[in-house]
């Protein structure tokens, strides 16, 4: 079969009419062929042009591929042939009321009415609370019991519902119901005043503020033909890596706490704060909110800032290193981490796991290496792949990445940085255009996609947080695992609720 | 074992001396906004027009800290002539109207309810409910439990059940899908109970204001006792609010 998908670059704006518009059958067959042959789904979504609905897919092999087609009202689900489309098809069904026939698990995603006002695919009228007319998956038998947790959890964390089907202490199945965090972010990005967009984007997931604002900024820059200076790219890369370190360090501490080894739990909690304070030093916000804007950055990094940051990094680096060494050399920690919550490589491939969760299963993909942006083309990003797919592997990958990111920041801080700061950039977006941006956030591949209309207004804004791929990984980790190991597995992924719920 | 001890010595004692000693935050931190009422009207209007949160009223010369995300755009657009952000992290208020300010905030301790101080001054157990928060407010509440802030030394703890709690701390713009769970958590908390709203989203919808999927603010659903503005509020703002209001 000739392959009609078009090869594109990360963060390159192209005209929509240059994207191959296939028949649905061609589109479906080729998408399935690419993904079955080892490709992955980056984005698969629906959008509306005048009165017709269309599908668009962005896939990746070692290149990025894109194609579109007219969307039928119902169509044979791609998931039947190829698992990685599973959640994307459910999302399209929920957002636009387009039914994938024969979908093996056609369940709502975030629990909201579709935007076209057509019949609800799931039979909900949304007068009831979540989960509406959906019956959770259940297991029956004499020794079977169910545990329901959430949406309000015991800790200070975001809401979600977890339904465990157990036999004794052993979990047969964990069903995760999200959607409690749904704020309508994609619609708001479409309708809100242009000056609000960077603020909405950076609040999609507050622990990934820099990641989301980077994806947004790159997309807006591409569509408006804005060049970002090298200094801004360096500062953005520093902010992005600080975000990664802070989250990984915090989670390593939480993992340590969950296996009752308290010293690293406390040290990491404190050191995470020190890394957040470096973001505060850079931009006045501990989560990097307000740092990245379309066109560049809002804050310079002068020589004093560089020296201050370098001094802080030099002081913390040995402490972080020694705490990580302590964690991984403690036999009681190793015995709890190793072999717990294992996901096989083939399952990881089918679910399309990304980021540390994917790398823990041997999928070495890292956007920073494979589809470089910002300063990453000048930096060496090693292949951090582990093979065991367990809590140990996920923790180890994160620990390795902490040290690598510290190294990256040291390199970036070694030379003076000059940039012209940006407050509010007036941007005129190219009409009838398309752009997709990808970045390796600390949880994995993060992607924003923008389509404009003939006036240069945003026609469709699609956001995909890495958690969209990875929540099913947590479910798989819990299969045949003791229910008491749930917190440990949960921390090893630490997925985003609001990033998923949008 | 030797490793554990070596690490312990390397880490040292990091707990803040606050509130006995004052805390100075980093220079780029943006705390309580201060308005210069003598600023030219056109500067005030330019600041109001640039504000992504529509938090500035140029005629009244006030800023709504409930809407403000402390991005500092107005300070830079107006070159500091109209709004400046101070280093002061003590920005919480007990009445919603006090969020709209020209810079002078009422003394929080004087506005706190005396019976709360009597009841909860020595022990305060709180249940946190994230209602569509982006995880930044949640994270900066969580951080109060780390050794630097060490909230427990003040007799304040976050607990696992509303049944064990004296009040709830709410974050996020309260999505439609989270509203029932939030109200049920409130109902499950025994009286007398306190309600604390943390972050711009909880106060007014924050960056998501206008979305039909969220509320217009926690006070439209529940009686709020303490408002902590910010996006997210700095942990010191949270700590200051809890200590001043209840101690």
Can you walk through the features of this model?
- The complex is a heterodimer of chains A (about 500) and B (about 250).
- Chain A is of the alpha+beta class and about 500 residues long.
- Chain A folds into two domains: about 5-100, NADH:ubiquinone oxidoreductase Nqo5 subunit (Beta Polymerase, domain 2), CATH 3.30.460.80; about 195-465, Cytochrome-c3 Hydrogenase, chain B (Orthogonal Bundle).
- Helix content of chain A is about 40%, strand content about 20%.
- Chain A contains 16 helices and 16 strands.
- Chain A has helices at about 25-35, 85-95, 185-190, 195-200, 210-225, 230-260, 260-285, 305-330, 330-335, 345-350, 355-360, 365-370, 390-410, 465-480, 485-495, 495-500; strands spanning about 5-10, 15, 20, 40-50, 50-60, 65-70, 75, 100, 145-150, 160-165, 170-175, 290-295, 295, 435-440, 445-450, 460-465.
- In chain A, strands 1, 3, 4, 5 and 6 form a five-stranded mixed β-sheet that branches. A four-stranded antiparallel β-sheet of chain A has the order 2-14-15-16. In chain A, strands 9-10-11 form a three-stranded antiparallel β-sheet.
- Chain A is globular, with a radius of gyration of 22 Å.
- The mean pLDDT of chain A is about 90.
- Chain B has about 250 residues and is of the alpha/beta class.
- Chain B has two domains: about 35-90, Alpha-Beta Plaits, CATH 3.30.70; about 110-245, 3-Layer(aba) Sandwich (Rossmann fold), CATH 3.40.50.12280.
- Chain B has helices at about 1-10, 40-50, 75, 110, 115-120, 135-140, 180-190, 200-205, 235-245, and strands spanning about 35, 55, 60-65, 85, 100, 125-130, 155-160, 165-170, 195-200, 225-230.
- In chain B, helix 8 (about 200-205) links the parallel strand 9 (about 195-200) and strand 10.
- The longest helix of chain B is centred in the last third of the chain and has 12 residues, at about 235-245.
- Chain B is globular.
- Chains A and B meet through helix 3, helix 4, helix 7, helix 8 and helix 16 of A and helix 1, helix 3, strand 6, helix 6 and helix 7 of B.
């Amino acid at each position: 079969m000739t392959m009609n998908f078009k090869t594109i670059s990360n963060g390159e704006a192209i005209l929509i009419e240059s994207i191959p518009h296939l028949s649905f059958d061609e589109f479906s067959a080729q998408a399935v062929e690419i993904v079955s042959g080892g490709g992955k789904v980056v984005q698969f979504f629906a959008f509306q042009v005048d009165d017709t609905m269309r599908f668009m897919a962005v896939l990746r092999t070692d290149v990025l591929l894109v194609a579109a087609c007219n969307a039928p009202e119902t169509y044979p689900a791609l998931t039947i042939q190829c698992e990685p489309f599973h959640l994307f098809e459910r999302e399209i069904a929920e957002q636009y009321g387009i039914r994938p026939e024969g979908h093996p698990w056609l369940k709502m995603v975030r629990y909201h009415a579709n935007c076209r006002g057509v019949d609800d695919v799931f039979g909900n009228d949304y007068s009831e609370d979540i989960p509406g007319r959906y019956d959770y998956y259940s297991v029956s038998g004499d020794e079977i019991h169910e545990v329901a947790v959430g949406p309000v959890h015991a800790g200070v964390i975001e809401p979600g519902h977890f339904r465990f089907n157990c036999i004794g202490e052993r979990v047969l199945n964990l069903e995760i119901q999200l959607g409690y965090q749904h704020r309508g972010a994609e619609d708001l990005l479409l309708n809100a005043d242009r000056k609000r967009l960077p603020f909405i984007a950076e609040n999609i997931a507050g622990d990934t503020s820099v990641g989301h604002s980077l994806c947004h900024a790159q997309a807006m820059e591409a569509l408006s033909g804005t060049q970002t200076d090298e200094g801004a790219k360096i500062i953005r890369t520093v902010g992005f890596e600080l975000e990664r370190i802070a989250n990984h360090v915090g989670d390593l501490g939480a993992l340590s706490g969950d296996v009752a080894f308290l010293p690293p739990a406390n040290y990491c909690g404190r050191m995470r704060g020190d890394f957040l304070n470096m973001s505060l030093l850079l931009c006045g916000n501990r989560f990097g909110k307000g740092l990245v804007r379309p066109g560049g950055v809002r804050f310079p990094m002068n020589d004093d800032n560089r020296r201050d940051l370098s001094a802080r990094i030099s002081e913390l680096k040995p402490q972080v290193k020694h705490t990580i060494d302590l964690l991984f050399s403690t036999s009681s920690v190793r015995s709890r981490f190793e072999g717990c919550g294992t996901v096989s490589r083939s399952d990881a491939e089918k679910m399309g796991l990304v980021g540390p969760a994917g790398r823990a299963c041997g999928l070495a993909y890292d956007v920073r290496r494979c589809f470089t942006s910002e300063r990453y083309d000048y930096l060496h990003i090693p292949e951090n792949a582990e093979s065991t797919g367990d809590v140990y592997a996920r923790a180890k990958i994160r620990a390795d990445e902490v040290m690598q990111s510290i190294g990256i920041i040291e390199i970036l801080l070694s030379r003076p940085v000059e940039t012209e700061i940006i407050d509010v950039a007036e941007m005129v977006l190219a009409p009838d255009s398309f752009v997709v941006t990808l970045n390796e956030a600390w949880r994995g591949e993060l992607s924003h996609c923008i389509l404009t209309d003939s006036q240069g207004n945003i026609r469709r804004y699609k956001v995909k947080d890495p958690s969209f791929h990875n929540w099913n990984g947590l479910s798989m980790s819990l299969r045949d695992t003791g229910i008491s190991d749930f917190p440990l597995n949960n921390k090893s992924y630490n997925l985003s609720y609001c990033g998923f719920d949008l | 074992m030797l490793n554990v001890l070596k690490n312990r010595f390397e880490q040292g004692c990091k707990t803040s001396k606050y509130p006995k000693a004052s805390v100075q935050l980093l220079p780029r931190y943006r705390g309580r906004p201060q308005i210069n009422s003598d600023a030219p009207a056109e500067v005030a209007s330019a600041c109001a027009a640039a504000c992504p949160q529509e938090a500035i009223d140029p005629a009244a010369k006030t800023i709504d800290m409930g809407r403000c995300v402390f991005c500092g755009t107005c300070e830079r657009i107006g070159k500091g002539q109209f709004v400046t952000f101070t280093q002061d992290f003590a920005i919480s208020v007990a009445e919603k109207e006090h969020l709209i300010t020209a810079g002078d905030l009422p003394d929080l301790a004087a506005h706190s309810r005396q019976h709360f101080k009597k009841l909860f001054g020595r022990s305060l157990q709180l249940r946190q409910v994230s209602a569509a928060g982006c995880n930044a407010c949640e994270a900066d509440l969580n951080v109060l439990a780390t050794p630097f802030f060490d909230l427990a030394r003040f007799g304040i703890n976050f607990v696992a059940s509303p049944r064990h709690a004296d009040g709830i701390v709410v974050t996020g713009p309260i999505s439609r899908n989270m509203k029932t769970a939030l109200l049920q958590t409130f109902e499950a908390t025994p009286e007398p109970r306190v309600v604390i709203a943390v972050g711009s989203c909880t106060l007014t919808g924050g960056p998501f204001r206008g979305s039909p999927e969220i509320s217009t603010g926690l006070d439209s659903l529940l009686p709020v006792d303490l408002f902590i503005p910010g996006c997210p509020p700095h942990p010191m703002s949270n700590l200051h609010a809890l200590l001043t209001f209840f101690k």
